[in-house]
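Email to the structure team, subject: MFS transporter model.

Hi all, the expression group asked for a predicted structure before they design truncation constructs. Nothing fancy, just the tokens so they can compare against earlier work. One-line instruction: predict MFS transporter, return tokens.
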Amino acid sequence: MAYAQTLTPSEQDHLQRRWYWYDWANSAYATTIAAVLISPYLTAVAKESACPGIEDGQTCHTNLNVLGVGIAPGSLAPFTITVSTLISAVVLIFIGAVADRSEHPTRLLGIFSWAGALTACMMFFISGTNWQLGVVLIILANVFFGASMIVYDALLIRIAPPDDRDRVSSRGWAFGYLGGGILLALNLVLLSLHDTLGISEGMSVRISLLSAGLWWAGFAIIPVLGLASLRGTVATPVERSAGVVRGSITQLATTFRELKHYPQTLSFLLAYLFFNDGIQTVIGSASLYGKEQLKFSDSQLVQTILLVQFVAFGGALLFGRLAREHGAKKLILWGLGLWVLVVLAAFFLPERAFMLWLALGLAIGIVLGGTQALSRSLYSQLIPRGRESEFFSLYQAMERGTSWFGTLLFGLVYQFAHSYRLSIVALMVFFVLGGYLLSKCDIREGIRAAGNQVPRVV
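Reply from the structure team: attached below.
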């Protein structure tokens, strides 16, 4: 069984360098599509369908007919993400059980990555009033994205020993922010110069969506091929004679029964459910909030996310370094305190105050990568061996781009109050609850209960 402790430092370094590339690859989707362009673009398409000829910045008071339910165009994007998460909550948990029984985990990584990338590329064809295609593609892309991350995150345990995971996870996130930032910079040029290039703003957005899918597909080749040596090394508690599908269902049922034996792991997941939903909803709704509530242009929003990307590169490395002395748990709690301040500042931010908006982006960048990277590495310590993918499937059901309580609350508040300010400030409850639950979680006891080595500092 090839876990990190059985590898030489040279072998660990070799595998870690290739592992980082998947953060670089998938961040194109997470940044250009999920965080910046798709929500405001889908909203614009939906508003054009419900209120033909509506001007930018105007509120459309005509609802869309979505399976017989009236949905405000401004709520369509957050509700779509909510639906994709509910679907993911079922699909991804089963995928995690199957992945733990696979002799070729990197093949699964490739399948899910390239399926997601293809779906992202197809977003190029969202245009006019065709919001229905956008809804379907967002749901599929988020499910494939989450599925690939289950396999990817589980590999962390096999390439990094316990005392190195904060560092390795933080470098992966940092590398991802750098890659996503580079592509976003290129797309910023395209969005800013679309008139000079002789194309419409809508076409420049569609080309940017396509570029993210191609970037994801191309760079995923490096980790898929570079980590192929890890195949066939996963332990499984279910007899292989049961078959992959039936055996995976049996394993999954066993895991849910056994969760009561890992109360601290369950407590961490509950805390993560709340604070990560808050983080993901802020990330996914920031561009919508900035455009519809604060009246910023698409190019200004891309500039902001670009700033966040490059600051988050340094923030992730900083949090990883501080965690060596103070522990991942304490750093995450510090980060959640800053998130509360960010949400409050966003509520009071005046319209068109772009410099203040950039200052808010700077604060988000500092804390964003660190809280996410350290959450991943801390959770990896709480997973029993042989159940990596399966337990990370529970984690991924709540991971980036797959919030459900947060986007649901955000959409409902807007649906009834028609105020994005009230929607954004309502998210503060997720950071407060998540931080409280995490503060009560005994991480060392959870690591011991999972049968793992306790790091020097947690």
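Residues 232-240 have pLDDT under 50 and may be disordered. The two ends are 26 Å apart (CA to CA). Ping us if the truncation boundaries need rechecking.
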